[in-house]
Amino acid sequence: MSISFTEGLANERKAGAEHFDMGHNHYGYLIKQDGTPIGVGVLHATPTGEFCGASALWDVSMYAPEHRPPCWTLNSLEPVDVSPSLLCLRCGDHGFVKQGRWVPA
Predict the structure, then answer these.
(1) Helix and strand tally (H, E) in the chain?
(2) Which residue in 26, 32, 35, 68 has its CB near the most CB atoms, within 10 A?
(3) Hey, is 8 helix, strand or coil?
(4) What is the structure's pLDDT at 70?
């Protein structure tokens, strides 16, 4: 079952997630392990208005080498800046996280 972007974002906030507005109707949050930032998540709406998200990890050391996901480069933590671009595998949303902002590809 899919939910609207507005409802999904509201549910995330109720759960205590701390999001920052990245512009272009995208909201970011830091993914943490043991309190240490290891990646960035990007919440966005699909073209039909459904709740969706993608993420980029810059620290994948907790994964066994044979199971490691792709790894991004952390250029800056504040404001968050990673490379290369992010591509949402669910809806095809594609862009860059640059200086805490979403830059469509």
Answers:
(1) 1, 9
(2) 26
(3) helix
(4) 84
